Amino acid sequence: ADEPLVLGIETSCDETGVGIVRGHTLLADALASSVDQHARFGGVVPEVASRAHLEALVPTMQRALTEAGVTLADIDAIAVTSGPGLAGALLVGVAAAKGYALAAEKPIYGVNHLAAHVAVDTLEHGPLPEPAVAMLVSGGHSSLLLVDDLTNGVTPLGATIDDAAGEAFDKVARLLGLGFPGGPVIDRTAKEGDRRSIAFPRGLTAPKDLAAHRFDFSFSGLKTAVARWVEARERDGEPVPIADVSASFQEAVCDVLTAKAIDACRANGVGTLLIGGGVAANSRLRVLAEERAAKHGIEVRVPRPQLCTDNGAMVAALGSRLVAAGVAPSRLDLPADSAMPL
Ligand code: KG4
Ligand code: ZN
């Protein structure tokens, strides 16, 4: 009971999350999602997301406190995602966190969303061995990070130069008529298909690209290649083998992600690879990462799917590490920073 009780608020995209942790122990993880409101647009609409956060935040806060069996007075610190993310969405969470911090006289910690995706794993697997490499793959980001000391930030090794991995899943699902969000449905559909049936391109893996972009990703060429392939089929009046296209597309994404992640571990002499973000829920990505990491004696850590997607627990988890490390809180005039660097 000596460990600090930390509450975390997440509103950077379309999930309103409030999590409560004590030390490394998760006590509550309340979530409200506006994903259904964005479905017919095929992607997150910022204005819609902001309004949904405003409606959902206080009820989600109440649910988290009830779930943990604590009151706001019991909380030792409030952490909130202050960036990167959608500007209007971030503002709702940051403004709410400040209000709670001011009213209850609690310290506030503005935290980086990507670092929070890394920190969440501590709730499941305990302290992260450092240094580690983290690969964060979601609808909004695809990054390789070097984690030397999580409480001191993370170092970017590379990122996508166009679409995020999850965005590629969403766009390909859309062109296959599978709905939104695309990741889970492609994951399911791919199980019925042959991942070797179509040779889709692997972005930024040619020797000339590796020189400048060894740890960067590119998925927009892959998406275009899938679109062209499907168009050609339709032009010829042939049926589109949805399962084979899904499986081959998914294989192209997972092949590149895991190859570059393992390369980043080896280049940095790192023995632990952490995978987070919504795409970490992908079943093929998990299998391929394990298979390839094992060959090099690298341990792979993937939090359970519920913790991989955006949530409040990840923000609370990072807040808890910051408090434990004695890091000074943020000021109450803390800004929301949509383009926050690492
Ligand atoms: O982390 P997240 O919930 O939100 C963002 O910060 O974007 O990630 C959502 C993304 C979506 O693009 C979704 O299609 C993808 O994660 N996703 C998956 C799977 N489950 C969710 N992608 C591939 N396979 C999955 N099983
Ligand atoms: Zn995220």
UniProtKB/TrEMBL annotation:
It is an enzyme of class 2 (transferase). It holds the Pfam family TsaD. Fe cation binds at residues 113, 117, 310. Belongs to the KAE1 / TsaD family. CDD domains: ASKHA_NBD_TsaD_bac. Required for the formation of a threonylcarbamoyl group on adenosine at position 37 (t(6)A37) in tRNAs that read codons beginning with adenine. Is involved in the transfer of the threonylcarbamoyl moiety of threonylcarbamoyl-AMP (TC-AMP) to the N6 group of A37, together with TsaE and TsaB. TsaD likely plays a direct catalytic role in this reaction. The gene is tsaD. Binds 1 Fe(2+) ion per subunit. This is tRNA N6-adenosine threonylcarbamoyltransferase. It comes from Paractinoplanes pyxinae. Keywords: Acyltransferase, Cytoplasm, Iron, Metal-binding, Transferase, tRNA processing. InterPro entries: ATPase_NBD, Gcp-like_dom, KAE1/TsaD, TsaD. GO terms for molecular function: tRNA N(6)-L-threonylcarbamoyladenine synthase activity. NCBIfam families: gcp_kae1, T6A_TsaD_YgjD. Residues 26-316 form the Gcp-like domain. It catalyses: L-threonylcarbamoyladenylate + adenosine(37) in tRNA = N(6)-L-threonylcarbamoyladenosine(37) in tRNA + AMP + H(+). It is found in: Cytoplasm.
